[in-house]
Amino acid sequence: MRILITGASGLLGLNLALDATATHEVIGVDRSKLASPPFKLIKADLLDQQAVSRILDEAKPDAVIHCAALANLEACESDPDLAYQMNAELPAQLADECARRGISLVHLSTDAVFDGTKDGMYSEADMPNPVGVYSQTKFAGERGVLQMNPQAIVARVNFYGWSLGGKRSLAEFFVNNLSNGKNVNGFTDVIFCPMLVNHLGKILLEMVEKELHGLYHVVGPQAMSKYQFGIEVARKFGLRESLILPQSVDTSDLTARRSHNLWLSIHRLSTDLEHELPDFSTGLDEFYTQYRQGYPQKIRSYQQFAAS
C-alpha cells in the first residue's frame, strides 16, 4: 500500500513514516524540517493554494494519514486565524480531494475536544465542548472531514514518544528535565490516556487495512493524571520522582485552558479491531528500550539544520 503522511516531521508523522516503511511504500509531506529520511519526501506548504490537489496527483497514494496540524495550544491562542486554516479548513479540503479520488483518509484529531467536566469516560457519542482555540479548531476539522468524506476515519488521540527536536512530547519533557536534576510540575488534575506513538501508528494502519470509517477514540486503555505519568516515567528511567512537584493546572501559567478529565472509552475501537489495545506498561517499556538503543538520536539525525 502506498501511504502519504502529512506532517512527516512531527512526532506522530515521523515515527509512523519510519515504522511503516518496513511494510508499505511511504511518501512524507514536510515543509522544511527533514533531511534525508529513509522514505520519499515531498516538500510543500499545505496551505499553498492547489498544494493538496498537486500532491495527491503526484503521489497517487492508496491512503493518506493526515498528521499535519497547528498543535501548540499557546500558538493557536495567539493566532486563531492560522489555527483555523490548519486545523479546520485544510482537513476539510483534504477530505474532499481524497473523496473525489477514492483515496482512504485518516484525520488526526484530539481528546481535547471535550471540556473535561464529565464524571467517568467519554464515548464517541458524547458531545464535544472545546474550551480553547486549538480544541475548537480541531473539532471544526472533525466535522468538516466527516461532512466532506463520510468514509474517512477521524481518530481522537493522545500520544507520547521520541521526536525530531527532542522536546515534542510530555514524556520527553520529564526525561529531559529529570535527567538534568531540574524540578518540574506535574498536573494532578488533568486526566488523560497516553499511548506510545509507535503503537498508535500501527493501530492507524490496521484501521486503514480493515477499511474502518467514522469517529474513533484511539488512546491508551489506562487513564492517569499527568503527575502520575511523570512518576511512571521517572521510575522506568531510574530518575528522581521527588523532582516532580504536584500542581493544579488551574494555578499554572499556561494561557490556553486545559480540560481536567480526558478519559476516553476505547470500546468501539477494540470491538471493531477485535483485540485489546496495548497497555500502558507495554508502551512505557518500549519507550525506555528505544532510549537504551539510541532511537532518540536516530530520530534527531533526520533534522534539517539551516546553513550558517
Describe the structure.
By secondary structure, this protein is an alpha/beta fold. The protein has one domain: 3-Layer(aba) Sandwich (Rossmann fold). Helix content is 40%, strand content 17%. It has helices at residues 11-20, 51-59, 73-78, 80-101, 133-148, 170-179, 197-209, 226-237, 267-273, 280-292, 295-300, and strands at residues 2-6, 25-30, 40-43, 63-66, 104-110, 153-157, 159-160, 184-187, 191-192, 195-196, 214-218, 224-225, 244-247. The strands form 4 sheets. The protein has a 7-stranded parallel beta sheet, sandwiched between helices. The protein has a two-stranded parallel ribbon with strand order 7-10. Helix 5 links the parallel strand 5 (104-110) and strand 6 (153-157). The longest helix is centred in the N-terminal third of the chain and has 22 residues, at 80-101. It starts with a strand and ends in an 8-residue tail after the last helix. The relative contact order is 0.15. The mean pLDDT is 96.
Based on helices, strands and strand pairing, what is the structural class?
Answer: alpha/beta
What is the CATH T-level topology?
Rossmann fold
Helix content: 40-55%
Assembly state of the chains shown? single chain
In spatial order, strands of the major sheet run: 3-2-1-4-5-6-11
CATH hierarchy: architecture: 3-Layer(aba) Sandwich
Total number of beta strands: 13
Outline the biggest β-sheet.
7 strands, parallel
Query: How many discrete domains?
Result: 1
| Chain-averaged pLDDT | 96
Q: Which term fits the overall shape? A: globular
| Strand-residue proportion | 15-25%
- N- to C-terminal separation? 39 Å
Uncertain segments of ≥5 residues (pLDDT<50)? none
CATH domain class = Alpha Beta
What's the name of the CATH homologous superfamily? NAD(P)-binding Rossmann-like Domain
